[in-house]
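dude i think i finally got it to work??
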Amino acid sequence: MTGPIDTPVTELLRAWKRGDSQAKDALMPLVYAELHRLASARAGRGGPQTLQPTALVNEAYLKLAANQSDFADRAHFFAFAARVMRSVLLDHLRAQQRKKRGGDLLRVSWDKAANSPADKAEQDFLRLDEALQALERLDARKCRIIELRYFAGLSYDETAAALGVSKTTVNRESRLARAWLRAELAS
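look at this
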């Protein structure tokens, strides 16, 4: 997602905002491919495998396509997409955990369940979400920076443009937010 902020995606978003339905039709294949690339990269980082990249993108895509077009540019669109994808992952993970607690599932001892690698990744993801929520309560902008950089994959320039701050501010606050998150997750 490198390149100038004024891309064909931005132009199509602006046309969609003006009510051009053809712009929406032209936009969706462009952003779908980029969202799939982001979801595939996210899956490769060792997070919880709650959804395959295609399933994640399909669910997020449906929510994005149904949304009213009020995106200023490409960076704002992908910032919103990052939140949607994070929400889809969390909803799916929580649904999986509800299934684990009931029904005719195989009973597993606590020790065996606690050492499951999949469970650990899921728990780590939930702890990260809790830490991000706590960070958002303390400093919403730092939380947005983490979402934009790591969930949406935006560059420092794109993140700065989306938030209306300088690249230096994004760099500094990103370092502070990562340090805060590491400390929060270590405790």
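The chain has one domain: 8-186.
im so relieved honestly
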